[in-house]
Amino acid sequence: MKIRLKTRGELFIISAPSGSGKSTLIKLLLEQVENLEYSISYTTREPRKGEINGKDYFFVSEKEFKKMIENNEFIEYAKVFDKFYYGTSKKQVYSRIKQGKDVIMDIDVQGAYQIMKKKELDFTSIFIIPPSIEELRKRLISRGRDSIEEIEKRLNTARNELKYLRHFDYVVVNDILEEALSSLKSIIFSERHRVKRLVDTENIYKHFAEE
Amino acid sequence: MKIRLKTRGELFIISAPSGSGKSTLIKLLLEQVENLEYSISYTTREPRKGEINGKDYFFVSEKEFKKMIENNEFIEYAKVFDKFYYGTSKKQVYSRIKQGKDVIMDIDVQGAYQIMKKKELDFTSIFIIPPSIEELRKRLISRGRDSIEEIEKRLNTARNELKYLRHFDYVVVNDILEEALSSLKSIIFSERHRVKRLVDTENIYKHFAEE
């Protein structure tokens, strides 16, 4: 009988300075890579029309959310616009990893750094960077969503966020989208061959010993 | 100006139980992957017709070889058939890595384990395994090179070598050749995105800060 190596999944924390094309890349990854899922956040805001509990978000009350904070149940959480809480639950992510699924967590640079500093979780971090600040400026202008002042503010934020590069495991330059996508896929695929991710190694040894 | 990330190369130690198809896979990798080279061994045997010094091997005298052993210049070395020495020089491998080349070292399982135990070098290890002992038997029989007794001896060796799996970084099952090749490529490509392999990080930070 041919061996089939079983591996646990991995949590991929993907972060990038604003405007680096992270969301597009993650969308394509989720479409094209099997056994790869997006982490679902908990939130205290009301569901919008069409949003499904447990698919788009887990919708909970502020009381429930605060209880989860107390119990240290979040990988990270934040209060957005001083109003609603958003957070990623450890249990939710690690139960899927145990089933062999890879999970992507899309998070801003500061949030990613907070998780790294804690050093309590096992994950692989990927930093997506633009090829240059000039290119980032072009992209933000052509998007037409922000004023010149807003764009320059964003570029300054990006400059600061780029300083966190050294804390990540992998770096991918998003110059040509297809190339960046292929690099991200390589990283995800190669991590699936990690010996330390194998489960049931005793059975592997048995498989070969008994034939 | 667009950033080009410069990385140092990596030493890939590739090992496999005999008959796993390692040599074919390495040959294809070297043909298809840019900036990937084979490590050149030192040997004390005479060059065969057509062999070029510094390309196929570095041909040295036994005296020179023993001097290199004394000076701890080898990543590993062995005396084959109690007659000729073969060895891989640290300087040779690491000078190419410094130039940004990835280097593949093809080595038997025991040799790989010796290198790992020393823990003095920086490398990534990959273990190629057959899908089953039965499949290995089929391959060895269809190769028609060995007697039944010799094949059973090889299978026993393979069974023992498979126990070293846990010491490697990555594992690739060579069932369908194209799939195994693609997995190996992913591993090599993904390692090129490692932040810890970046050289000249100060320049990267400058690049983004000054624009």
From TrEMBL, chains A, B:
CDD domains: GMPK. This is Guanylate kinase. NCBIfam families: guanyl_kin (TIGR03263). Essential for recycling GMP and indirectly, cGMP. SMART domains: GuKc (SM00072). It holds the Pfam family Guanylate_kin. Keywords: ATP-binding, Coiled coil, Cytoplasm, Kinase, Nucleotide-binding, Transferase. Its EC number is 2.7.4.8. The lineage of its organism: Bacteria, Pseudomonadati, Acidobacteriota, Holophagae, Thermotomaculales.
